[in-house]
From TrEMBL:
<dbReference type="InterPro" id="IPR036390">
    <property type="entry name" value="WH_DNA-bd_sf"/>
</dbReference>
<dbReference type="InterPro" id="IPR036388">
    <property type="entry name" value="WH-like_DNA-bd_sf"/>
</dbReference>
<dbReference type="GO" id="GO:0005524">
    <property type="term" value="F:ATP binding"/>
</dbReference>
<protein>
    <submittedName>
        <fullName>ATP-binding protein</fullName>
    </submittedName>
</protein>
<dbReference type="Pfam" id="PF13412">
    <property type="entry name" value="HTH_24"/>
</dbReference>
<dbReference type="InterPro" id="IPR011991">
    <property type="entry name" value="ArsR-like_HTH"/>
</dbReference>
<dbReference type="Pfam" id="PF13749">
    <property type="entry name" value="HATPase_c_4"/>
</dbReference>
<dbReference type="InterPro" id="IPR038475">
    <property type="entry name" value="RecG_C_sf"/>
</dbReference>
<keyword id="KW-0547">Nucleotide-binding</keyword>
<keyword id="KW-0067">ATP-binding</keyword>
<dbReference type="InterPro" id="IPR000485">
    <property type="entry name" value="AsnC-type_HTH_dom"/>
</dbReference>
């Protein structure tokens, strides 16, 4: 059952009675998690009386012994009245109390008959509860970084917001609407990743590991681990990579290593690496408990994360135009609302374009059963560098190459069949619009250091040869490589 503000149940009772309340907790857990609200004894000065204090200490243990369930108990202000809040997490498998299965729905705790129990046990196969909206019951709004919360919600202040109940309510509503908090006031996994200073305390493996391996594999020569919110991890990872692992081209101090010693292309562009790290963290399968891994060799930089696009996708589908299919949709939507992620399904083309504009090799993508790898090559044998980024001279005929990207090899063969040939500029233009068909003539001209009229001539020539086609209008359409 998807967890949303409307579906998270809330039960209210005057006091805790073991049998009745344990049945309620069982029913709430089976219903997808929620909360049980109890009256609290608090004096006029806000001091908790002895009976309520004993209950706060006793209830978690009673639930754990009876249901093997971990619940948090907190004193909260509900509708202007102090109450005890028992936060009940959802369960993966149906839970019973004394052999009876309960389900809390529409304010009533129901006993499930055999048919209803069968439906409950099939719930996971009938609905897709995304990882990023599961609640983290051990945390609350107070555990989040209020500066990050303020940045996301647009609240007026980033300090002691708990004194302003109206502002607190508005913040919670905004976070719930974004899928960063549940209807019972606990952050979701996405909320912890985005708004907590140390999400790995709640989500195992929510970090980035960087290692330098020299020219061989095996154990890293040196390594680091990056902590913090997902945005902080992205920035800290890129900063450390370019300060320590990808230093500027200068004489290497004795005993240190330099990237790019195998061929002289130097470092990949910072923007491309930033986008690749962001993609890995945003689309990772966090249930794996495995950090995003950045492996630096003398001739390449590889970024691996557990998680991949739909299994029907090939690398060719990933590199082409595709819809946005995030593994963590609420997390990605929140990053997009902050302006951290730009557009839908544009991350891969953005990485490739940054590399092309910088004149560095195009990265190599690999999709395995449960992993995605992007590798930035640093040697002189790059296919894209050989076929696109030769700006020293413009020849009327293509330069000799041992291997070509598939689209350019096919284009050259097609031109040969028609007793003609492509110029180097034609191939450069074709390579760029193969990466992003929305590129305009002015931008291509700027990147290739040629005139707009030259680019438009290549457009016409490639179109006449049947290699590209225009989809949509000149103003809002895009080029499609056939």
């Amino acid at each position: 059952m998807p967890i949303s503000e409307s579906s998270l149940p809330i039960a209210r009772r005057a006091t805790w009675r073991d049998e009745e309340c344990l049945e309620l907790v069982c029913g709430i857990a089976n219903a997808g998690g929620g909360r049980l609200i109890l009256d609290a004894d608090v004096d006029s000065r806000g001091t908790v009386k002895r009976r309520t204090s004993r209950l706060m200490k006793a209830i978690p243990g009673t639930i754990a012994r009876s249901l093997s369930l971990t619940c948090a108990v907190e004193l909260v202000l509900d509708s202007g009245k102090f109450c005890l809040e028992v936060v009940v997490p959802p369960v993966d498998d149906p839970l019973s109390y004394h052999g009876v299965f309960y389900f809390f729905r529409d304010g009533e705790n129901q006993i499930l008959d055999d048919q209803a129990l069968d439906r409950l046990m099939q719930r996971d196969t009938e609905s897709d509860v995304k990882w990023d909206i599961r609640p983290v019951v051990q945390a609350s709004l107070d555990d989040l970084n209020m500066g990050l919360v303020t940045r996301f919600t647009g609240a007026a202040r980033d300090t002691d917001i708990t004194t302003d109940r109206d502002e607190l309510t508005a913040i919670e509503e905004t976070l719930r609407h974004a899928g960063l908090m549940t209807g019972v006031g606990t952050p979701t996994n996405a909320g912890i990743l985005l708004l907590h200073n140390r999400p790995h305390q709640y989500i195992p493996g929510a970090t980035v590991r960087i290692g330098f391996f020299g020219s061989h594999g095996g154990r890293p020569i040196y390594e680091d681990e990056i902590f913090g919110s997902i945005i902080e991890q992205v920035h800290a990872t890129v900063e450390l990579l370019y300060e320590k692992y990808l230093p500027e081209d200068e004489p290497a101090p004795k005993g240190t290593y330099r990237l790019g010693t195998a061929g002289g292309h130097g470092r990949p562009p910072r923007d491309a690496v930033h986008e690749a790290v962001l993609n890995a963290l945003a689309h990772k399968n966090y249930d794996s408990g495995t950090p995003v891994q950045v492996s630096v060799f003398t001739d390449r930089l590889c970024i691996d994360n557990v998680g991949r696009p739909p299994r029907t996708w090939t690398v060719a589908a990933l590199l082409g135009r595709h819809t946005s299919r995030p593994n963590n949709p609420n997390l990605v939507a929140a990053l997009r609302s902050l302006g951290v992620i730009d557009g839908w399904g544009n991350g891969i083309s953005s990485i490739r374009m940054h590399c092309m504009e910088a004149g560095t090799p195009e990265p190599i993508f690999e999709l395995r059963d449960d992993e995605t790898t992007i590798c930035f090559p640093m040697d002189s044998d790059s296919l894209l560098a050989a076929s696109v980024t030769n700006v020293d001279s413009v020849s009327a005929s293509p330069v000799a190459r041992n291997a070509l990207p598939e689209v350019q090899a096919a284009a050259r063969a097609h031109a040969t069949q028609q007793d003609t040939s492509l110029t180097l500029n034609d191939e450069k233009v074709l390579a760029m619009i193969d990466i992003d068909g929305r590129l305009t003539a002015p931008r291509i001209a700027k990147n290739l250091n040629i005139s707009e009229s030259t680019v438009r001539r290549s457009f016409r020539r490639l179109r006449e040869l049947g290699l590209i086609d225009r989809v949509g209008s000149d103003k809002s359409g895009f080029w499609q490589v056939k």
